[in-house]
Amino acid sequence: MSGIEFPAELQKKIDETSPVDVVIGVTGTADPSALRTKAKCLRGIAPDGENGQPAKIVVAFAGAAVADPVTALEDGMLLAEYPTAPAAEVMNLWRDVSAAQRSVLALAAAWQSRACMVIYGDLAGLEAEPVRAFVEPVVKGGIDLVMPVYPVSKHDGLINKSILAPMSRALYGKRVRWPLAADYCAGAKMLEKLASDGARAQREADLLWPSNVVAMNGGQINQAAMKVRHAPPADGLDLNAVLQELVGSLFEEAEACAAQWQRARASQPATRQGEPCPPVESGEPVDTGPMVESFVIGSRNLEEVWRLVMPPATVLELKRLARQEPEQFRMPDALWARIIYDFALAHRMRRVSRTHVLGALTPLYLGWVASYVQEVAGATALEAERRVDQLGKVFEEQKPYFVSRWRWPERAV
Amino acid sequence: MWNQIGQAIHDSMARVMTQIAKLLPGILAFIVALLIFLVLGWLFAFVLRRVLTAMKFDEHVGRGARGSIAEMSPEHTPTVLITRLVFWCFVVLGLLVGLSAFGASSAEPGVAAYVFAYVPRLIGAAVLLFAGNVLARFLSRSVLIGAVNLNLHYARLLALGVKWLVLVLTAAMVLDHLRIGGAIVDLAFGILFGGIVFALALAVGLGSRELVSRSLGREAAKPSEVQPEQQKLRHF
User: Fold this and answer.
1) In chain A, whose CA is at the least distance from the CA of B76?
2) How far apart are CA A336 and CA A390, in angstroms?
3) Which 63-102 residues of chain A touch chain B by CB within 8 A?
4) Where would I find the H helices in A70-153?
5) Residue in A155, A355, A362, A365 to test binding to B, most B beta-carbons within 10 Å
6) For the whole model, what pTM was predicted?
7) Among residues A131, A147, A143, which one has the least CA distance to residue A22?
8) Which mean pLDDT values do the consecutive 10-residue runs of chain B (236 residues) have?
9) Count of other CB atoms within 10 angstroms of residue B84
């Protein structure tokens, strides 16, 4: 059981109509009339049944309908409202989305669906072609999870490029471009696992890392192009708050799954299917001066906290970096990987409060961004992709350092 | 006459020895009570730690109130904090029982009564001192990290100022709680605190007017300078 319970009326409808072929869940509230219109074009995303009956497709969205949560559309399609998960107490970027994703996956599990496509609340991905590209490999090919590859420029998704993707790759052994995705499709075998995600689903602060969960359960992961650009509502959230939420959750995941990721060895590629996303070129030069300045201010003032988190040799190397000319500022990949691993360990050990650990990471992250932006200034989007892939490899190479420190944190390095 | 002097010394010696002899059982009772409660405290703390570890108490607390305890005392898990609290409760209880035994067996009940009356103040002061230190460290680091992330060059100075402000406030509260110094502490603290605020006001108003206005102007101008660069980058 996923641990998520649905209202009696909805559960009754589920029991009456299950099993279904595909559940397409929107992670947010939506206008039902707009969804009805969009749903029409989704007909045919899954193959018809053996006796020629059209595939049973459910389009679900967050709502409050208690009396009539499921309405029938034409051609065997259903429109369902699932109860909105209570919003997190603090302003957040991804916690509410993760909670909605868990609800959608639990709904699909209750419906005994063969596949569940999760769609971001802006409905940009709710088109026949991308949905088919995600659903088909799951329904026909038996793939457990299809993750998206978004068309981004070299200056987009920097937290993902610098920390989330390379650390997930090194720890869980799957080269997934966006481990914290807004749209993806999961197969029947993984629905329960993703919806419950162990005991961690009960914690509203924890985010859902679909590819990491599936990788730990030995599932097969593919990647498909999702040619949309989402803009998560980051109003009122500064970089520090976003880092706290996303990186903090990844560190918590690492702590909760230490037994699994320590066993994982070299990473495996997640097969990219279909046409690749056309690279988005970004010709505008970026002034890295303010970011280098942030790093230098951090280096001058945060030594006391950094020394509690990182070994002396790393702090010394950072001091040396702070003396570089801003134009020549470069942060070596190995150093960056060790920094992230040290912070993950400090997060676990609580030598300093977790808020402070992640707060002290912000200037270092800005230092990495400055270094990366300067390095890829003259590069194409494809070359920048290769650069990010190279960083992932270095994270893998440095994994023994992390495992060693994780097992023997008090041992001098 | 020498006989009388000798007799007087002998009598006073006998009186002192009698007094000491009367005190000894009290002191012994104090030590025995303290030792018994130390052992009891250690035993209870040991059993409690085993029980809480078996119940995975740390994980449950971490899930409920995410890090609220850990944020204030990051080096200790909730289990360690609770077991230590239980142990020290037993130690304090042992001290009180020992004092009571001392008072009951000594001829000077006034001493025990005086110490008893002062013990709650001592405990309160110790708690204040501990809380003040933890708070000072926590706030100082929070200000330091917050100021660094706002790109303030004088972040460390700010953090140091906050730390000492909280420590001075704590010291004044502790002394006041112990009733040491009386009005002098209030007065001294008032003068010190008022002096700091007055000095800052003077610095802003007169001495560093130019510097402060330049600094504030730079800070105010920063968003408009940085914004176009920030728009070119998307962190998530």
Assistant:
1) A350
2) 13
3) 93
4) 95-110, 128-139
5) A355
6) 0.79
7) A131
8) 87 84 81 91 92 80 53 67 89 84 66 70 87 93 93 89 90 88 80 82 71 68 52 72
9) 14
Beta-carbon separation of A156 and B234 below 8 A: yes
Give the end-to-end CA distance of chain A in Å, rounded to a whole number.
44
Which residues of A fall within a CB distance of 8 Å from B67? 353-355
pLDDT digits (tens, 9 = 90+) for A42-96: 777 777 666 667 788 888 888 776 677 777 777 778 888 888 766 666 677 788 8
The answer to whether residue A243 scores a pLDDT higher than 70 is: yes
**Taking the domains of chain A in order of start, what are their residue ranges?**
8-273, 289-407
Q: Number of A to B CB contacts under 8 A, please give it.
A: 103
Nearest Cα to A210, choosing from A98, A356, A67? A98
The separation between the first and the last C-alpha atoms of chain B, rounded to the nearest angstrom, is: 102
Q: Which of B70, B155, B235 sits opposite A350 (nearest CB)?
A: B70
How far is C-alpha B198 from the geometric centre of its chain's CA atoms? 29
Q: Which of B144, B232, B235 sits opposite A286 (nearest CB)?
A: B232
Which of the 8 DSSP states describes residue A181? Answer: -
Domain A8-273 sits in CATH at 3.90.550.10
- Encode pLDDT of A294-337 as tens digits: 999 999 999 989 999 999 999 999 999 999 888 889 999 999 99
A324 in contact with B, Cβ within 8 Å: no
State how far residue B84 is from chain A, nearest Cα, in angstroms.
18
pLDDT exceeds 80 at position A157: yes
For residue A323, give every residue at least 6 positions away whose Cβ sits within 8 Å of its Cβ, in sequence order, or none: none
User: In chain B, where are the structural domains located?
Assistant: 1-107
| Residue B149 contacts A, CB cutoff 8 Å | yes
User: What would the pLDDT profile of A354-373 be if each residue is shown by its tens digit?
Assistant: 999 999 999 999 999 999 99
Minimum mean pLDDT among A181-185, A190-194, B20-24, B172-176: which range?
A: B20-24
Residue among B105, B145, B140 nearest B22 (CA): B105
Query: Does the pLDDT at position A396 exceed 60?
Result: yes
The pLDDT value given to residue A88 = 64
Q: Are B156 and A240 inside 8 Å of each other by CB? A: no
Kindly list the distances between the CA atom of residue A253 and the CA atoms of A221, A269, A407, in Å, as whole numbers in the listed order.
19, 21, 17
Contact present, A126 and A26 (Cβ < 8 Å): yes
Matching residue, tokens 């559960």 = A11
Whether B156 and chain A come into contact, CB under 8 Å, resolves to yes
**Cα–Cα dist A383/A401, whole Å:** 28
Residue among A350, A309, A317, A356 nearest A333 (CA): A317
